[in-house]
Amino acid sequence: MYKSIIRPLLFNFDPEDIHHVTFSAIKILYKLPFTKSLARSKFVLEDPKLYREVFGLKFKNPVGLAAGFDKNAVLFDEFSNYGFGFVEIGTVTPKPQPGNEKKRLFRLKKDEAIINRMGFNNEGVDAVVERLKHRKSDIIIGGNIGKNKVTPNENAIDDYLICFEKLFDYVDYFVVNVSSPNTPNLRALQDKEPLTKLLKTLQEANLKKNTTKPILLKIAPDLTDDQLLDIIDIVKSTGIAGVIATNTTISRDNLQSDSKKEQGGLSGKPLAKRSTEVIRFLAEKSNKAFPIIGVGGIHSPEDALEKLKAGADLIQLYTGFIYEGPSLVKEINNALI
C-alpha cells in the first residue's frame, strides 16, 4: 500500500514541505486513542533474538532511525511504534539556525536517492531539550550534535560542549557530526589534530559525570584509507565508544536522475556499496576494536544483512525508510530472526 498509493502521492509534493506536513499529520493521528496500538500491531516485532547490547546500552533490536529525519525531537515517541530499536535526533546546534536557502532537498527517483544541503537547520538545543523532557516511551535516543554555521572552526569545541552539557540528561548516547558536507569547512574538523582535540575534550567532560554516556563519531564515506586508519587511531586514543559509518557522500558516480548535479550530500542506494566498504575496512583494520553503526543505502533486508556481515553492530535507516516505507523495519527484523 505504501509503495503503490502513499509514496506516489507524497512524491507529488516538494520533499521538504511534505516532510513537515507528514510530521504534523502523524502528531494529529497519535492524539486518537487507537493509533498507537494499531501502529505497534502492524510494525513492531519483539523477539529476544533481536536484542543487542552495544556500548553498554540494551537495544530491543538493531534497526535505528538515522539523524536528520527527526532533527528537532518532534516525533521520537511516535517512531518507537514503527519498530525501531533506537532513534537519533538532530543534528542539533547551540543556537537555532534556518539552514541553507531553499530549495535544498531533492529526490533522485531513478537512483532511489536523495540529495540534501539542509545546513543543520534546527530549532536549537534548548527547544530540543524541552521536548525530550516530556519523553513517554522507553526507546533509546541518540543526540547528534554539531556547530552553528557562524561559529569558526577554532571555536567549534565550545559549540559541541554546549550541546553535550545541555543534552546529557536527556539522551542515551551522543554522536559528534563533523562529516556533513553542507556546513562550510565542517569536514576540516575530521583532520586528525582538530578531531582528536575535539573528541578528547568531550570525553574529558564525559568522564567528569557520575555516569558516562557513549560518544560516537559520524564519519564521511569520502575518506581515504589513510584517513580511515587515522580514525581508528583517534577512536583508540580518545576512548570514545564507536563510529557511525557513514554520512552522505559528495560523490556523484553513475547517477541517472536530473537532479544529480545539485550541491549537497547524497544518500540512498548509490551510497550502499561505499558505506559497506568503509564499515568492513574499519572492522578489519581495527580487529573489531570498537562498535560500528552502519548507515547508507539500506533499502532491503539483504542490504541490512550485508552491513551487519561487514562488521556493523547496529544499523540505521533514512532514505530507505522514505522509499520503502515503515514496513522495512519489520522486514529487516524478520530477516534477522
From TrEMBL:
Gene field: pyrD
What pathway, per the record?
Pyrimidine metabolism; UMP biosynthesis via de novo pathway; orotate from (S)-dihydroorotate (quinone route): step 1/1
Please report the name of this protein according to its UniProt entry.
Dihydroorotate dehydrogenase (quinone)
PROSITE patterns per UniProt: DHODEHASE_2
Spell out the subunit comment.
Answer: Monomer.
CDD domains xref list: DHOD_2_like (cd04738)
Q: Locate the residues binding FMN.
A: A67, G68, F69, D70, K71, T91, N144, N177, K218, T246, G268, G297, Y318, T319
- Where located? Cell membrane; Membrane
Catalytic function, reaction form: (S)-dihydroorotate + a quinone = orotate + a quinol
InterPro entries per the UniProt record, alphabetical: Aldolase_TIM, DHO_dehydrogenase, Dihydroorotate_DH_1_2, Dihydroorotate_DH_2, Dihydroorotate_DH_cat, Dihydroorotate_DH_CS
Gene3D superfamilies recorded: Aldolase class I
The record's active-site residues are: S180 (nucleophile)
Q: What does this protein do?
A: Catalyzes the conversion of dihydroorotate to orotate with quinone as electron acceptor.
